[in-house]
Design brief:
about 180 residues; mainly alpha; 7 helices
């Protein structure tokens, strides 16, 4: 039986087919990775510029913030659920514990303060108090105004307050003076 010459023209050698499939697979992986890489870029646009410009510091701040948030939120939930106390007082107690921990960690790791500065501590405390007020306002809104579970308010505050505090700490509390003539 003889091979049909027309049929032979349309067939690709097996190696060419596998090369083509490999190229198509590589192209599809590249497209998938570029669209996956574009997702963080799109999300970063929602952050204020000072946060985007100091993303490494913001990530460090976030790591410390996770532990501070666990400390504050854990104190809040324990105080309310086990002690049957008021959510606003529980949040305030958790705030104090979180403040002490996060100042020590952020001053050394995130903002690289060489020593403890009374001025930086006072400014950090002012920023943290502003964050506490924002946190309590959000908690009050959810718990007392909307009548929703206080935990939803705390979750909302966990998202908004750290961004607020990072910006103020970076721009004011731990601001490094610009050097003249450089």
């Amino acid at each position: 039986m003889r091979a049909n010459p027309e049929h032979a023209k349309n067939e690709m050698p097996v190696s060419a087919v596998s090369d083509r499939r490999a190229q198509e697979d590589a192209l599809s992986r590249k497209e998938a990775s570029s669209s996956a890489a574009a997702l963080p870029d799109r999300l970063l646009r929602f952050l204020p510029r000072i946060v985007r410009d100091h993303l490494g510091d913001f990530i460090k701040y976030g790591v410390i913030g996770v532990f501070g948030t666990l400390l504050q939120t854990g104190t809040l939930f324990l105080y309310v659920e086990k002690g049957h106390g008021d959510p606003l007082i529980g949040s305030a107690l958790g705030f104090i514990l979180s403040l002490l921990f996060s100042y020590a960690a952020n001053s050394r790791w995130t903002f690289k303060e060489s020593g403890s500065s009374a001025s930086a501590l006072v400014k950090y405390t002012v920023v943290s108090c502003a964050g506490l007020l924002l946190n309590l306002l959000i908690l009050y809104l959810f718990d007392r105004v909307l009548g929703w579970w206080y935990g939803y308010g705390q979750i909302t505050a966990i998202v908004l307050v750290p961004i607020h505090n990072f910006i103020l700490n970076k721009a004011w509390a731990f601001r490094t003076p610009k050097r003249e003539g450089l």
